[in-house]
Amino acid sequence: MTPWEIQGRELINCNCAFGCPCQFNALPTHGNCEAVGAITIDKGHYGDVSLDGLTVGMALKWPGPIHEGKGQCQPVVDVKASPAQREALLKIISGQDTDPGATIFAVFATTYEKVFEPIFAAISFDVDIETRRGRVSVGDTMQMQGDPLRNPITGEEHRARINLPQGFEYEVAEVASGTSRSSGNVKIELKDSHAQFAHLHMNNHGLVRGRKVA
């Protein structure tokens, strides 16, 4: 197993109601799951291959709850990645060189019925986790926007977080509202549905824990 480790930031938008029942081991809001997401790696490596500054994305779709399988996955990899970096990133996000069930990538990989050939494209990633604001763009293939939740009466920003001490994706996520579009093999249209911003830190064996909550 090649050792790897990544530290970065993510913005994920799915079709569930704010809070996403999946985070609490409940069934998805509408019975199925669709999601668009992107992760930028601030610091990382796969063996001796540096992954600093690279970004990956995914468009994901399941006809029912994720654990029932039959999912589709469209991976997207930063075009500026070298051949060695592309191979490393694809191995990580497909759950390879990872303890079974240790990361979200390893878990999701067991639920895919179809994984399409990766798209290599320029990825624009502008995400501020603390303010719950973010924009991600992958050419004409994928667009995603995250904004703070707002009180429906006053219009004031509303802050809510999910804390998963034993999670396989993050420890703490800021909940937000997301609007996304994915074209191509996995077509998705989302508007004002659950989004989450999170700091990620993981390796072959799962999350590197201990993040302090502000």
Question: Your description of this structure?
Answer:
The protein has a single domain (4-207), classed as Acetoacetate decarboxylase-like (Beta Barrel). It is mainly beta. The model has no long low-confidence stretch (mean pLDDT 96). It has helices at 83-93, 104-109; strands at residues 4-14, 33-46, 49-50, 55-62, 71-78, 112-115, 119-121, 124-128, 133-138, 142-150, 157-158, 161-163, 172-182, 188-203, 206-207. The protein has two helices and 15 strands. It has a 15-stranded mixed β-sheet that branches. The protein is globular.
List keywords for this structure.
15-stranded mixed sheet, 214 residues, Acetoacetate decarboxylase-like
Radius of gyration: 16 Å
| Total count of helical runs of at least 4 residues | 2
Q: Spell the H/E element sequence.
A: EEEEEHHEEEEEEEEEE
* Average pLDDT rating: 96
User: According to CATH, what is the class?
Assistant: Mainly Beta
| Overall number of domains | 1
Topology:
Blueprint: E1 4-14, E2 33-46, E3 49-50, E4 55-62, E5 71-78, H1 83-93, H2 104-109, E6 112-115, E7 119-121, E8 124-128, E9 133-138, E10 142-150, E11 157-158, E12 161-163, E13 172-182, E14 188-203, E15 206-207
Parallel strand pairs: 5-6, 5-7
Antiparallel strand pairs: 1-2, 1-14, 2-3, 2-4, 4-5, 8-9, 9-10, 10-11, 10-13, 12-13, 13-14, 14-15
